[in-house]
Write a structure and sequence with these properties.
2 copies of one chain form a homodimer. Chain A has helices spanning about 5-15, 15-25, 30-45, 50-60, 75-85, 100-105, 110-115, 130-135, 140, 165-175, 195-210, 225-235, 250-260, 295-310, and strands at about 65-70, 95-100, 120-125, 145-150, 160, 185, 220, 245, 270-275, 290-295, 325, 330. Chain A has about 350 residues and is α/β, with parallel strands linked by helices. Chain A has 3 domains: about 5-55, 434 Repressor (Amino-terminal Domain), CATH 1.10.260; about 65-160 and about 295-325, Rossmann fold (3-Layer(aba) Sandwich), CATH 3.40.50; about 165-295, Rossmann fold, CATH 3.40.50. In chain A, strands 2-1-3-4-5-11 form a 6-stranded parallel beta sheet. The first copy, chain A, has a 6-stranded mixed beta sheet with strand order 7-6-8-9-10-12, sandwiched between helices. At the A-B interface, helix 4, helix 5, strand 2, helix 6 and helix 7 of A face helix 4, helix 5, strand 2, helix 6 and helix 7 of B. Chain A binds a DNA duplex (16 and 16 nucleotides) through helix 2 and helix 4.
Chain lengths: ~350, ~350
DNA sequence: TTGAAAGCGGTACCAT
DNA sequence: ATGGTACCGCTTTCAA
């Protein structure tokens, strides 16, 4: 039993394929009687126009590709959900791929675009290989790409991101107010743009208070929870351990608190810990995590919206270097930070 | 600047389009010289065959759709990652949609299949509407669908799931061994098939030990962390509170422990808590969560593999009711369970 | 308002 | 081994 085609519907309704097509896409360009006739048949057989054929003809897929560093990481799923929020109402579908598997296949991350499978791309990975970036920079591709959360350093793509620097300044200010002077910092992956920004933000705020953050007080090589756990022990050894630990992600912070607890160190009694992201779990850790709230869903939502704008051509093409959209962040004070022990 | 077409490549290489097509898909059916000639041009212009056109012709999209209850829930992202594990090596792409937004659009959850956008469907939502289920039951669709994790009650679709009942029996046995006799249970959504299975498993194991689980000792209406937090208070009020709480998800368990902590109740000193899933976080909560490990990635991986098998026709069609693949679960003992206080 | 027919960009059959 | 060409299913002029 083959699937119904437009021809079958046309025959059954006693009209031409052109009329069926119009009845479906331009209902007002068909007489009421014919339309009813056609729709009846369509309904009866639950006919759905073949998407490939349609795309081929109209040169548009109504599909957008999201490129995620690692689909297994729950951090990104919330952004994806936000993307869906914007895409779904526009009748656009989402194709998801992660850069890990793509690289394994030795496939250009953008081949989907080139193969006309997707109209546009939302990239959550700031570390795309240079040749992919080059492909995306061509005039034909420029308005079909938006970066969300992360972004490639030194390239001018439209992007949506959180105010990472301001976030760390908020975090530092909060700790400073509570009398802390001895800081440590748990960083993410070295080359990562978020690591760079947040670290810079922290250093800046600390410097303003006349506090130096020596390399020996910086640890961490990923945003993962296990890394935070391991780093906790290293950070606290030595003669004069920090009283406050700035973590560049909540996962890092939660792992860190777990490690601290294992050593019998009390949070926030002995040391204060602050995170970044405000993932769902932060409110339920013990103690509940003080953190910098990042609107992940909004990130996705706005990125998708910008992409949609770009695709529909009503993008403001005047600016050669599109300004990034920067979303505000906020401090969420919970139980993992307190006044420094003197 | 339009994208290159096969005609352009053919002209540039001085051959016919047929030859270009062959050089790309059946390299051995073309002479070495011509192939080199063609490939040079292809490479030079980074030509990529239009996917829509190809799909239209070969009647295959090499794309699979995953239907997720809620993309924002990190629980599913790991399954999705597993799906990718199987799909990527096969050169199949993944299209993701969540049933929430689909319903909002009043669209049949399976319209993607009907529109020939995807060759097959992996459904993580056991609660599909009846009409969608009916659509999927047609002979044309039967071998294109696999359920993973959840499954629709009373329908015989191929499915991959964890051994939920055995999981709860493991949990109960563990607690029994530690001398617990007073149990409470935190359930997920009422209609959910996982709630049903796990609850049944718990009741069974409890009954074997001569222990009854009264309705008053059952709480919870979702798998979410916030629900566990709220339920904790309710569960512990009353004259003779439980000494052990069985949670049908880790999120529930973590929320519950958080709530318990807020009330000054010690885990596992006063009450033991056990979860289900073994999400990444479980190892880092305080105390670390004893839980039932479910191989989420494996779930996705095997489901995708079964789908691929079904699509390629080498499915064992003899069985009218395909046997579900049931993955084993294991108990992971950590710090949230201990001997019952007498 | 409706129908006939020309493609959209590939693939694969049939000749050569 | 290669080229010519019908066709995949739908949309969209162009005429009627």
């Amino acid at each position: 039993m083959k699937a119904m085609g437009i021809k079958d519907i046309a025959r059954l309704a006693g009209v031409s394929t052109a009329t069926v097509s119009r009845a479906l896409s331009n209902p007002d360009r068909v007489s009421d009687a014919t339309r009813a006739q056609v729709m009846a048949v369509v309904q009866a057989h639950d006919y759905r126009a073949n998407s490939q054929a349609r795309s081929l003809r109209v040169q548009r897929t109504d599909t957008v590709l999201a490129l995620v560093p690692n689909l297994g990481n729950p951090f990104f799923s919330e952004i994806i959900a936000g993307i869906q929020d914007s895409l779904a109402p526009a009748g656009v579908d989402l194709l998801v791929a992660d850069t890990l598997t793509q690289q394994a296949r030795r496939q250009s991350a953008v081949s989907h675009l080139q193969a006309a499978r997707a109209d546009g791309l939302i990239c959550l990975d700031g570390a795309l290989p240079a040749d992919s970036l080059a492909d995306l920079s061509t005039p034909a591709m420029r308005h079909r790409v938006v970066f969300a959360c992360e972004w490639p350093i030194g390239r001018d793509f439209p992007s949506v991101r959180s105010d990472n620097r301001a976030g760390m300044q908020l975090a530092v200010a909060h700790l400073l107010e509570h009398g802390h002077r001895d800081f440590a910092l748990l960083a993410g992956p070295p080359g990562n743009v978020l690591t760079r920004e947040r670290l810079a933000g922290a250093r800046e705020a600390l410097a303003q208070a006349g506090i130096d953050l020596p390399e020996s007080r910086i640890d961490g090589h990923s945003f993962e929870i296990a890394d935070g756990f391991a780093a906790a022990a290293r950070l606290m050894q030595g003669p004069k351990p920090p009283t406050a630990i700035l973590c560049l992600s909540d996962q890092l912070a939660i792992g860190c608190m777990s490690g601290l607890g294992r050593m019998g160190i009390s949070v926030p009694g002995d040391v204060s810990v602050i995170g970044f992201d405000d993932i769902a779990l932060a409110a339920y850790s013990s103690p509940p995590l003080t953190t910098i709230r990042q609107d992940r869903r909004g990130l996705g939502r706005i990125a998708a919206q910008r992409l949609l704008d770009g695709l529909s051509g009503r993008t403001t093409d005047e600016a050669p270097a599109p300004r990034p959209t920067v979303l505000p962040i906020t401090l969420v004070q919970r139980g993992s930070t307190a006044r420094a022990k003197r």
